[in-house]
Design a protein that fits this description.
By secondary structure, the chain is an all-alpha fold. It is built from eight helices and no strands. The termini are far apart.
Length: 176
C-alpha cells in the first residue's frame, strides 16, 4: 500500500492529530477551550483550525489546485497573522504536519523500503510552506497598510480638531 493510500485511510485521525499539534502552539487554557467548544460563533478560531487542517489534508493528498490550497491556508494564516505571532511560529503548523508524518509512518516505511515515498510527499509539504509564506507576507503587508491608514486618519482628525480650536480662538479673540 502506498503512503498516499495509508494517509487516505487514516485521514480523519491524522487531521485530528494535526489539529492538536496546531493547538499546542497556544497556551494550555486556550487549547482546552478551543478543543471542548464546537460552536463556530463562540469559538471561531478553534473551529477554523479544525476545519482547515482537515481540508488541507484532503487538498495535499489530491494536490490538484494551488488556488484551493492557498484559499484554505489563507483562512488559518489570517488568524495567525493578526495574533501577532512571529512568522516562524505563525507558519509552524505546516511543518508540524511533516513531523506528524514522520512520527506516524517513518518506521513502517523504512521497514517496507519505501522511505522515498515519504520524502516525495514531504516535498508537497515544503511547497505548502512556500505557499503559506507568500500568504503570510501578503497578510502582514495588508495589516501594516491598515495600521498606516489608521495613523493617517487619526493624524488628520487631530489636525482638523486643532484647526477648529484655533478658528474658535481666533473668532473669540476678535469679538472681545
Amino acid at each position: 500500500m502506498s503512503l498516499v493510500q495509508k494517509l487516505s485511510e487514516r485521514k480523519e485521525d491524522l487531521a485530528g492529530k494535526w489539529n492538536d499539534l496546531v493547538l499546542s502552539s497556544y497556551p494550555k487554557e486556550t487549547q482546552e477551550v478551543w478543543k471542548s467548544n464546537n460552536d463556530r460563533f463562540t469559538n471561531p478560531v478553534g473551529i477554523t483550525i479544525k476545519k482547515v487542517t482537515s481540508e488541507l489534508l484532503d487538498l495535499i493528498l489530491e494536490w490538484k489546485s494551488a488556488d484551493n490550497i492557498a484559499k484554505s491556508l489563507d483562512e488559518l494564516i489570517k488568524i495567525r497573522t493578526v495574533q501577532d505571532f512571529a512568522p516562524s511560529k505563525a507558519l509552524s503548523f505546516v511543518f508540524l504536519f511533516k513531523k506528524l508524518l514522520r512520527d506516524e509512518f517513518m518506521d513502517e516505511l523504512r521497514q517496507e523500503g519505501k522511505l522515498d515515498e515519504l520524502l516525495a510527499f514531504e516535498a508537497r509539504i515544503d511547497n505548502l510552506g512556500l505557499i503559506a509564506f507568500d500568504i503570510y507576507t501578503k497578510n502582514r503587508d495588508l495589516i501594516t497598510q491598515m495600521r498606516i491608514e489608521e495613523v493617517k486618519r487619526s493624524h488628520h482628525m487631530l489636525l482638523r480638531r486643532v484647526n477648529e480650536i484655533e478658528d474658535a480662538s481666533a473668532k473669540g479673540a476678535g469679538q472681545v
